[in-house]
Amino acid sequence: MAVHQPWHRTMAPRDTTEENRSATPLELFFDLCFVVSVASLAAELHHGLSGDHVSTAVPSYVAAFFAIWWAWMGFTWFASAYDTDDVPYRLAVLVTITGALVLAAGVRRAFEEQDYALVTAGYTIMRLAQISQWLRAGHSHPEGRPAARRFALGLACVQTLWLLWLAVPHDWRLPLFPVIAALDLAVPVLAERAHPTPWHAHHIAERYGLFTMIVLSESVLAATTAVRTAVDEDRGDAPLYAVAAGGLVTVFAMWWLYFAKPAERFLASTRAGFVWGYGHYLVFGSAAAVGAGIAVNVDRVTHHSELSATVAAASFTLPVALYLLTLWLLHLRPHHVGHWSAASFPAAALAVLASTFTGAPVALTGAVMIALVIAGFAAARRVA
Predict the structure, then answer these.
(1) Which of 75, 126, 239, 375: disulfide with 301, CB 3.0–4.6 Å?
(2) Cα separation of 141 and 152, whole Å?
(3) DSSP string of 208-244, one letter each residue
(4) Are 44 and 58 in contact (CB under 8 A)?
């Protein structure tokens, strides 16, 4: 079938009431390419934790994941408002993907040497593509021009700060990181005051759901790789399979709970979109860290790591508990689902944290997650 691809379209805002708005093939390709960065990051977190470099691995993970998440966020919300799917738009998206791959190539240096030059270079490439998109939107859409110009100017200024950040002494980088990150997060808030961008609630909810599934799949891949390595070395025994089973059940339950309620119902304002969208940094980041935590516990039970039992367990239970609490705040409280949400999720998070100090933290966490899913079923039946 011959497909005509337009060379150029006027970058007009998309209809926010468009029916059956779904992710495009380009958006799906974008996510699959970004998963390379997520996979690299999760692998380095695993190696850093297993090597007992917690003090450097965790800050490196937080910083690098911020770059991945924020670049993905910028493209996703822009595409919801101004996706023209013409040749210039596609080329800009492909440049963004190239930046993500450059960032992925620099993840190892960031973890092992605290060298963020390549990560920042990849981030800069992505931001330049995003700035060009906002300039184009401002040129084509007069009503949205003030917001588009604020976006372009704000992104350019903050990106300059990130480049200058590379030049400061290493001891200053960690304290300065949250300051520049906060300025980065403030750009959309300030830009949207001029003229809210016309994003599509169902489309945004679907895009976030797709990326959540991709991040969770990385956790499954990390666990599978770790278990396969252990079995190949004839180190498979009951503790190993308990970690594998508990980790897999936990990831399944994380997926189940995320899609228990449709998010688009309460994405009815710009303020709600900001809270929900920004909060997903913790959802995505904790979900990706769960896979690293599973791999760390596999290393420990197969004697590939010198970590203490408590630290190894915490590498898994802490991100699971954080995922549950964030999911409760973002997805369930806005639905006003009643006592099940108010009591079960915080209690489950506490139970997961308590399992850190037991002999089988991954298996017990899996059991807690199963109980939480069953409690959700029971609550739904009572409501019905």
Answers:
(1) 239
(2) 14
(3) HHHHHHHHHHHHHHHHHHHHHHHHHTT---HHHHHHH
(4) no
Task: Please state the pTM of the whole predicted model.
Answer: 0.91
Residue with tokens 């594998």: 244
Is pLDDT above 60 for 29?
yes
Residue whose C-alpha is closest to residue 97's, from 29, 155, 158: 29
CA 369, 371, 374, 376 torsion: positive or negative?
negative
Residue 1 confidence (pLDDT): 39
Residue 197 and residue 191: Cα distance in Å, rounded? 9
One-letter amino acid for residue 162 of the chain: W
Mean pLDDT over 360-376 rounds to 93
Write down the mean pLDDT value for the chain.
88
Packing angle, helices 361-383 and 238-258, rounded to 10: 30
Amino acid letter, residue 220: V
Nearest to 99 by CA among 127, 132, 61, 70: 127
Residues 6+ apart with CB under 8 A from 10: 84, 140
Cα(first)–Cα(last) distance of the chain, in Å?
Answer: 47
- CA–CA separation, 365 and 286 (whole Å): 15
Instruction: Provide the angle, in degrees to the nearest 10, between the axes of the packed helices 87-105 and 117-140.
Output: 160
Helices (H) and strands (E) in the chain, counts: 14, 0
pLDDT of residue 229: 72
| Residue the block writes with tokens 């708005």 | 21
pLDDT band for 233, please (50, 70, 90 cuts).
low
* Per-residue b or e along 309-322, where b marks 16 or more CB atoms closer than 10 Å to that residue's CB: eebbbbbbbbbbbb
- The count of residues in the chain is 384
Q: Where does residue 293 rank: exposed (0-12), middle (13-18), buried (19+ CB within 10 A)?
A: buried
- Pairwise CA distance, residues 317 & 358, whole Å: 11
Residue 330 DSSP label: I
Confidence of residue 129 (pLDDT cuts 50, 70, 90): very high
